[in-house]
Write a structure and sequence with these properties.
Layout (H helix, E strand, L loop, with lengths): L1 H8 L11 E6 L3 H12 L6 E7 L3 H10 L8 H6 L3 E4 L3 H13 L3 E4 L7 H14 L3 E3 L7 H13 L4 E7 L12 H11 L1 H12 L2 E8 L4 E8 L4 E7 L8 E8 L2 E4 L8 H17 L8 H27 L1
Parallel strand pairs: 1-2, 1-3, 3-4, 4-5, 6-9
Antiparallel strand pairs: 6-10, 7-8, 8-9, 10-11
The chain binds NADP nicotinamide-adenine-dinucleotide phosphate.
Length: 321
């Protein structure tokens, strides 16, 4: 990896004399088709190409690969041999072990949130990235949106906030939603959309040092994030809000007033292209760290895991009462 990055650094421009970074995509479902495949296939400006697709259904992999001009090698070993980096669009408990194998084989990682459900698998993935000396980025969508980055730059420069708040009311558990997938039904908004809000408030108010959590009705989770330095921020997430109530809000507040995060468009391609460009830049520079790398993804996951434990404990206590 280091040798590859060094040889890239010697070149004087992207795509002139150096080959593009070959990315493979793991997953052939809705999110792979509408987000990762089009982002990877249109990232030549970042010196990236979509070289290969792999999924557990070979026919689906062949179809997606053909639609985006990529190969569909049979078997994960042949797939990994054909790429420099791997992007993931599969459930987190599927992503984590495959990503660990890929990292140990020296492949750079574009991961989805949450990086894993199990803390042990998240820790193993961090170990694999360290051992493989590969670059990693987790697609916390909000953190890669230009509007949100401008807001974060402003609020972190001003500082002095007493607290914040965030809510994301989604409707992915409606029958009609393409996101009504088994892992979401099982793990809910706590694991699906809380990662975005936790990552955002972490960036705005400082590292989350502890969490207090409880559940509401249906798929409703309430978290209170306690940040290093003393700020606190309540978060409510649900995927069972219904379309009329759907929406995302976040703000920070203090003696200087209140600052709300801007509304953001739905289109995932601009922030995903930014993610890819930053990952490719790190690969070429021989750098493995990023503010949203696998370690940050693991740390956000630890907050969710602790919240899940508290929610489960309260549910069990409620059932006993
Ligand atoms: N950052 C964001 O804003 C954002 C938005 C949406 C989704 N995501 C992330 O993208 C990931 C996938 O999203 P999704 O749930 O909506 O899934 P999805 O797009 O429906 O795709 C699921 C894919 O995973 C495959 N899969 C499922 N179980 C598998 C298993 N046990 N072994 C191998 N492959 C398996 C499916 O294969 P089959 O087709 O054969 O079932 C399908 O290819 C999740 O991590 C999610 O958090 C992120």
């Amino acid at each position: 990896m280091v040798a590859f990055a060094a040889s890239w650094r010697e070149k004087d421009g992207i795509g002139m004399t150096s080959p593009p970074l070959r990315f493979g995509l793991v997953g052939t479902g809705y999110w792979a088709r509408v987000a990762h495949a089009p982002a990877l296939a249109s990232a030549s400006a970042a010196g990236v190409e979509l070289a290969a697709v792999w999924g557990r259904n070979p026919q689906a992999a062949a179809r997606l690969a053909a639609d985006f001009g990529a190969a569909a090698p049979e078997g994960i070993d042949a797939f990994l041999a054909a790429v420099d980096g791997v992007a993931f669009a599969v459930p987190p408990d599927v992503q984590a072990p495959i990503a660990a194998v890929a990292a140990r084989a020296g492949k750079h990682l574009l991961l989805e949130k949450p990086v894993a459900i199990s803390e042990a698998e998240a820790d193993d993935l961090v170990d694999a990235v360290t051992q493989g000396q590969v670059a990693s980025v987790v697609f916390f969508t909000l953190s890669f949106r230009a509007e949100i980055r401008a807001w974060l730059a402003d609020v972190t420069a001003r500082g002095g906030w007493t607290g914040g708040a965030g809510s994301w009311f989604g409707s992915s558990l409606l029958e009609s939603s393409p996101f009504n997938t088994p892992w979401r039904r099982e793990n809910g908004a706590l694991w699906d959309i809380a990662p975005h809000v936790v990552a955002l408030l972490w960036a705005a108010l400082g590292p989350v040092t502890s969490v207090t959590a409880d559940a509401g009705p249906a798929d409703v989770s309430h978290l209170i994030l306690h940040h290093q330095g003393g700020a606190s921020s309540p978060v409510t997430v649900t995927q069972s809000a219904g379309e009329q109530a759907a929406g995302f809000e976040a703000f920070v507040w203090g003696g200087a007033g209140r600052s709300a995060a801007p509304a953001v468009p739905d289109d995932p391609l601009p922030p995903l292209r930014t993610t890819l460009a930053e990952l490719a830049g790190n690969i070429r520079a021989g750098q493995t760290g990023h503010p949203c790398d696998v370690r940050f993804g693991r740390n956000v996951g630890r907050v969710l895991a602790e919240a899940q434990r508290q929610i489960d404990r309260r549910r069990r206590a409620g059932e006993r009462a």
